[in-house]
Amino acid sequence: MHGLMMNMPLMISALLKHADQNHGDAEIVSRTVEGGIHRYTYRAAHQRCRRLANALRALGVQPGERVATLAWNGYRHFEIYFAVSGMGAVMHTINPRLFPEQLVYIVNHAEDSYVFFDLTFLPLVEALADKSPKVKGWVAMTDREHMPQSKVKLLCYEELLAAQSDDYEWPVFDENTASSLCYTSGTTGNPKGVLYSHRSTILHAYGAALPDALNMSARDCVLPVVPMFHVNAWSIPYSGALTGCKIVFPGPQLDGKSVYELFEQEKVSLSAGVPTVWMGLLAHMKQNGLRFSTLKRTVIGGSACPPAMIRSFQDEYGVQVLHAWGMTEMSPLGTVTTFKLKHDGMSKAEREALQYKQGRVIFGVEMKIVDDGGKDLPWDGTAFGNLMVRGPWITSGYFKAEGGNPLKDGWFPTGDVATIDADGYMQITDRSKDVIKSGGEWISSIDLENLAVAHPAVQEAAVIGVRHPKWDERPLLIVVKKKDAQVTKEELLKFYEGKIAKWWMPDDVAFVDSLPHTATGKLLKTKLREDFLNYKLPSA
């Protein structure tokens, strides 16, 4: 027997219709590539999205076609999010920080029909155009006044919209229809495409907005520092429309000074981004003796958040840190570290220790840890194994079946090694390829890195395993010192004493000017392992 409920498919366009009807005067504010601040409302955004949908139809874009973006966080990018998916096509965000050969591969593999780009990325477009034969048109996301000279024939975004009316009815179709496409560089070989659906996107938007997740509401002003080209900005554009919150888009200026000024000017209450951005913001604030007047909480994910950063935000500035974890393959949200009622009586130190973990799942995600043989391991906070996940917004396979079926008995292997405690709080101890195996035992490089960056002289740190004749691998600590700071190898190693097991102690310390990062800001340990391949440890 079926229930007697209306069968209304979950549509991304419905989010924007809801925002227009119920939060029509709520603001969307953008710092633009051309310079200055742009302001309008959800109602105006919805109107322009309908114009864009008509423009795409006039260009001949068909349902299922991929329409790509090379763009920062801004109002035009927001419009493309909703118009492309809403009309039944597939919105494909491209990460401009990837290597040129990866960008060529991605555009051609996705078979993008049109590419919309911010002016910043004109050089990329000119490099890509000759190598992307299936792209029918390149659209500069600007007005006629700011249109650049180029060897590539360009269309003007604002002219496309001006030529169309806003008389457009959003089509209704199967909620399992593909809505957006994002390539992950976290896999081996070429980047692989993760293809989201309208259903998965809406469910994820609900999950992300929950009180035990990002806790978004119409009372918030949210600034996503996380790029819209990085896993749909962690769903903030969608959850923003769902809740009707004010959204502030920072554009290309993500330095500490620019982000801080927007926080204060627009009275931001919630933000989200990766640790590298927050390093710059906190450094700017400390140097200039600044305070937050409205920021209440920030979501930190993308890579493990150093405990020193959590303490700085909370103890020095009164901003709650929501430590989060997820993957492109997970839309991306998996876990968030929020407290339960039982934790109210905890000491400050105990609560902080909990926040160092990546958190507990929100409804919609199941997880488990298994050993190398696939056997389930206990949730005791001690046993660590391979982290597996499943749920309605987690991929079942990659676009065009690249790499074959990634699932194991219906579960997606994340490639992370983790522990889960009795209350369901998960902690990543390493990537399975980064864990250091010394004498048959595992050492967590993340724990060693977090301790290193707690030292007042350390700006950034990485730990990799280096070959050892007796122990197979031993940890090498690689450090970037803060500007004008002085610290020795002996001082850093002494800093570890009493905080870790003796056999975890790094065998040596190497000082470098900078560390390599991936396009999404994570430490590029494959490059470090190449650079230090023949490094000889003192103990070897």
- Tally of strands: 25
Q: What would you call the structural class? A: alpha/beta
**CATH top-level class of the domain at 13-208:** Alpha Beta
* Rg over C-alpha atoms, rounded to the nearest angstrom: 24 Å
In the sheet with the most strands, the strands line up as 2-1-11-10-12-13-14-15-16
Query: What summary fits the major beta sheet?
Result: 9 strands, mixed
Helix percentage: 25-40%
Shape designation:
globular
What would CATH call the architecture of the domain at 13-208? Answer: 3-Layer(aba) Sandwich
Ends apart, CA distance between termini: 70 Å
The name of the CATH superfamily of the domain at 13-208 reads ANL, N-terminal domain
Mean pLDDT: 94
Q: According to CATH, what is the topology of the domain at 13-208?
A: Rossmann fold
Estimate what percentage of residues fall within beta strands.
15-25%
* Tally of DSSP helical segments: 15
Low-confidence stretches: none
